[in-house]
Every structure is written in C-alpha cells, then in structure tokens.
Write a sequence for this structure.
C-alpha cells in the first residue's frame, strides 16, 4: 500500500474548461479581425501602407498568441510529499552540493552573501550530506572574509535554527521579520544571537567600506595569505579554501552536531583568457566540488537568493526519488521570487505570468526552462549524460569518508581544476556543464538537457522556497528585460533555435513554449508600430479602425 503512493502528485489547474472556452472566443475574435483587415485594404494613396502595416502587426500578434497557447492550454501544479519521502527513505538520502555565485563585493555586499550562505547551510537536511560552495568572480578578500565570518557564526546560528525550528533561516531576513518576538526562546537567548549577528555584519560592512581586513584577523586563517598587493579581480591565481571540512570530526557546532562543508572558490582569472561569466563559474564549481564532495545532486542559487523554506531540498528529492517518474527527471526548477518588490509592483517584476502560468504550462509539456537560480540538477545529467530507459542513479555516490589526503592536498587538486587553461581543448561549456556564449546560458543549457531526452519539473510551493533581490527601478527593470529578451532572441537566431535543435527530440508544443521567450524581443516591433502609427493616422485623418 505504502509503496504504491507516489512521492509527488500532479494536479491540473482549476478552471481549465473556462479558460479553453475563453481561448476559443479570442481565436474567433482574432480571425474576424484579420478577415476585416484583409478584405478592406484601402486604395493606394488612402493609407494603404499604414493599413498593410497594421495587418502585419496583427498577424504577428495572432501568431504569438497561438504560440502562448501552447503553455496555457493545460498547465499543471506539482505537490511533493516529504512525509512519504521520510517514511520510505528515512535519513538515507543522497548528498547535495549547493553552488552560490557572486561577482562583485560592492554590488553584491559580502554581508548579503553571508546571510544567503547561512540560510543554505541551515537546511533541514543531514549536515554531513550538505556542502555549500561559493564562487567569487570578484576574487575579493572582502568576500572571503565574509565567508570566514560565516563559518564561525554558523556554529551558533545552525543550532539556534534547529532548536527553535525558525524560518526563514537567513539571519538578515529572520531578524528583519521577527521584531523581538520570543514565543520560542528566552528573550535573552534571542538578543544574544541577534547581537552576535549584528556585530558580525558590522565588522564585515566596515571591512568593505575601508577595503581592508585588520591584520589580527588575517592572522587567523591561512586563506587570507592568498591575497597580496598585485591581485585584482581580473588577474589572479585560482583560490580554493575549504573553510569547514564536513568530514573532519572536529568540525562541529556549539551543540556538537556536524557542520556542512563550506568552500570558497575564486577561479583563476587572467586578462588574456575569456571567463564566460556565470557559466564559467558554474563549470569551475562542478569540477572543484567533484574532488571535495562529488554529490549526485547539485543545487544552484544566485548570491542574493536566500532559502525561505528549510524543507526545499527534501521537496526536490521527492521528484528525483519517485519510483515511477524520478529516473526521467533531469532537473527541478523553483520560481524566482523577490522579497523587495514595491507595493504596487508597477514594472511587473513579480513575474506573475511566468511563475504562475507559463512555467506550470511548460511542466505539462516536458518541463520548465532552467532559469539559472533555485534549481536542482543531477550532476551526471548536467555533465552531458543522455537519457536511457535503464538509467539508474547511484544515490550513494559522493565522497563520504575522509580521504587519505590532507585538506591542503585536496585544495591543490581543486585549484588545478579552477585554472584558466583547464578547459582548453575540452568539451566544457559545450557538451559538458553549463553552455557558453549566451546571455541566458541557463536557458540554453536546460534546452540541451531536454533535447538529450530528460524531462524537468517545476515546483512552485505556496510558501516560496527562495527569495531574491529583484529590480525596483525602471532602469534596472529595463536592463534585466533587455538581457533576458536579447539572450532568448539570440537563441532563436542561432543553431539552437528550438524548432530546429529540438526537432524530433521534444514535443512541438514544448518547442512553442520556448519560443514565447525567443520571440519576446521582436514582439516589441509590432507593439511600437501599433502605438505609433494609429496615432499619426488619427492626426492625418486616415481611418485604420472601423467607425462606430
Ligand atoms: O561573471 C559573472 C557574472 C555574474 N555572476 C553571478 O550570476 C548571478 C546572476 O547575475 P545577475 O547579474 O544578478 O543577473 P540577473 O539578471 O539577476 O540573473 C537572472 O538571469 C540570469 C540569466 O538568465 C540567470 O543566470 C540568473 O540566475 C537569474 O537570476 C549572480 O549571482 C552573479 O553574482 C557570476 O558569478 N559571474
Ligand atoms: Mn540578480
């Protein structure tokens, strides 16, 4: 009985019939409009060019509308059951590597990164099976300092989180939400930990402001010696520092519990070598982690996205470990939620349509896109494995026992994997790992995974699993949308155009779903035409719409 119960459930959205009826009426409206446009073309000299332009814009809209219907026709919602996971697997769960990317200590302050890191270390998951890696593309001693502080504060923070089962486990988010309430612990304990956190944040912020780390602190960890006067963010040797070695018996928190592994990495940067931005960082992390923990599951988040739900790892595993479907699932994607949106969200940054409708729609067709953050991958699949029916993942994979080699030896090995030249003449960035050469490297990587035969799953729980920092001003919004729409358009125009690249490998409707984003940018041309030309025609007295 217990066996037959799935680890997750797939629900259809309510109101499907009503939506379809609505879509049919819209389709009828569109056809009537096109009919009107096509049969009443004015004579030359009476606004014919403008009229034909309107026809072209409306044809474009009609086609784009059809494309969007692919995902709107049958969206689904998934619901994982962690109680069933617990009943079936107990704590015999796979190990998980968590990758966090940061790029600049000034636009992404180390104190923000530290809170994200702490929230991830505090997952409700066996700590000996959890390893958190930070990639610092800024190659900054200030970020390293923040990580070192985090490794010390974790000894207080993790027991506190677990003892009182608090949420969210990002200390910054937690203390900003709970204003001194203490139903759980004594006010004294609460203030103690809050003061400790505030003092740490202040030390980190002061260091960032002055740009210097006090000498007495530098003496406390060998890692600080990696930096000298010559090092810049664009020119430095590879740096890998294992701040907490989870396999070390002495790496315990204040309650004596094992701590998760914590690693800082700044891959080598040289001016003459292209670094491929975040994709390059992700690939370096895949290699570096392979000699430290080598977990079969890899999760990745941006450094501004803290964990808001300490069961998110277990939720994701419900999909991978499901007996019926798990072996087909390449990755599990969570939505991108922001915690800093203004009240009325005037620039639409809540991504409501994408998060609530389109991703669930893609899920019913073969899987959501990989959007670069809040995503769980299987290491082997991210590294290029093709789907085969008999594929059995070894969930016990990973480096469990303390290796014979010392921490220094492991670090040296890891550094060689983070060198600039390591990828030369290899398939990294192409067939292996995250793909290079695209502004939305994640989308193209996810597409390649789908085309290798894997599905993906979208998990959008009521309580968001991750919270990030979204754009709040018009300028930031435009910048982000430009990056996304340009990136997706470049996929459309490249050999990765989903209709060509995905032909015969994914469903036609799934391909159409990808094109919603691929055609996002050119949509603006029809819109521009539609807002400018009718107004000009009105001034000139040329009718473009029926008289009422
Ligand atoms: O050279 C770089 C540049 C960026 N990053 C990191 O990449 C992440 C995303 O960069 P950001 O500038 O914040 O871009 P966003 O537009 O906010 O990113 C969204 O869009 C990207 C492209 O689709 C995805 O990769 C991201 O996960 C998604 O959050 C951040 O953590 C950065 O620190 C690096 O590690 N190295
Ligand atoms: Mn961002």
């Amino acid at each position: 009985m217990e066996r037959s119960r799935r680890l997750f459930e797939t629900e259809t959205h309510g109101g499907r019939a009503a939506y379809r009826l609505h879509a049919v009426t819209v389709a009828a409206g569109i056809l009537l409009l096109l009919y009107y446009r096509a049969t009443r073309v004015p004579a030359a000299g009476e606004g014919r060019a403008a009229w034909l332009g309107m026809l072209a814009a409306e044809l474009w809209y009609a086609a784009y509308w059809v494309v969007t219907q692919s995902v709107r026709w049958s969206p689904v919602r998934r619901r994982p059951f962690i109680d069933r996971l617990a009943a079936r697997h107990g704590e015999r769960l796979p190990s998980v590597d968590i990758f966090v990317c940061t790029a600049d200590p000034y636009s992404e302050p180390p104190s923000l990164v530290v809170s994200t890191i702490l929230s991830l270390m505090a997952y409700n998951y066996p700590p000996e099976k959890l390893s958190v890696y930070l990639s610092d593309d800024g190659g900054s001693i200030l970020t390293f300092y923040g990580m070192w502080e985090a490794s010390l504060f974790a000894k207080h923070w993790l027991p506190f989180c677990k003892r009182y089962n608090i949420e969210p486990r990002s200390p910054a988010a937690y203390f900003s939400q709970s204003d001194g309430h203490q139903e759980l612990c004594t006010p004294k304990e609460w203030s103690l930990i809050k003061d400790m956190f505030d003092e740490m944040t202040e030390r980190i912020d002061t260091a960032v402001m002055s740009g210097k780390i006090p000498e007495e602190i530098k003496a406390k960890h060998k890692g600080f010696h990696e930096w000298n006067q010559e090092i810049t963010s664009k020119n430095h040797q590879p740096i890998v520092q294992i701040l907490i070695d989870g396999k070390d018996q002495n790496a315990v928190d204040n309650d004596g519990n094992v701590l998760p592994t914590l690693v800082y990495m700044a891959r080598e940067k040289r001016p003459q070598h292209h670094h491929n931005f975040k994709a390059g960082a992700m690939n370096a992390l895949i290699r570096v982690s392979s000699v430290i923990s080598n977990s079969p599951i890899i999760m990745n988040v941006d450094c501004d996205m803290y964990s808001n739900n300490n069961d998110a790892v277990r939720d994701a595993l419900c999909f991978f470990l499901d007996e019926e479907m798990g072996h087909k699932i390449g990755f599990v994607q969570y939505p991108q939620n922001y915690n800093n949106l203004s009240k009325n969200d005037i620039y639409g940054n809540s991504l409501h349509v994408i998060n609530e409708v389109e991703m669930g729609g893609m899920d019913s067709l073969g899987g959501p896109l990989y959007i670069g953050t809040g995503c769980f991958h299987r290491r082997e699949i991210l590294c290029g494995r093709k789907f085969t029916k008999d594929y059995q993942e070894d969930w016990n994979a990973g480096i469990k026992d303390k290796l014979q080699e010392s921490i220094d030896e492991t670090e040296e090995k890891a550094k060689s994997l983070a060198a600039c030249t390591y990828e030369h003449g290899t398939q990294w960035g192409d067939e292996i790992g995250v793909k290079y050469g695209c502004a939305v490297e994640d989308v193209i990587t996810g597409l390649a995974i789908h085309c290798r035969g894997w599905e993906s799953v979208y998990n959008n729980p009521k309580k968001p699993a991750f919270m990030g920092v979204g754009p709040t001003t018009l300028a930031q919004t435009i910048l982000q949308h430009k990056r996304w729409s340009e990136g997706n358009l470049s996929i459309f125009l490249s050999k990765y155009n989903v209709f060509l690249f995905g032909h015969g490998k994914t469903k036609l409707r799934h391909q159409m779903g990808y094109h919603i984003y691929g055609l996002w940018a050119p949509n603006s041309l029809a819109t521009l035409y539609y807002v400018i030309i009718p107004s000009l025609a009105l001034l000139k007295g040329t009718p473009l719409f029926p008289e009422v």
About this structure: The CA atoms of residues 135 and 285 lie 7 Å apart. The radius of gyration is 26 Å. The longest strand covers residues 96-102.
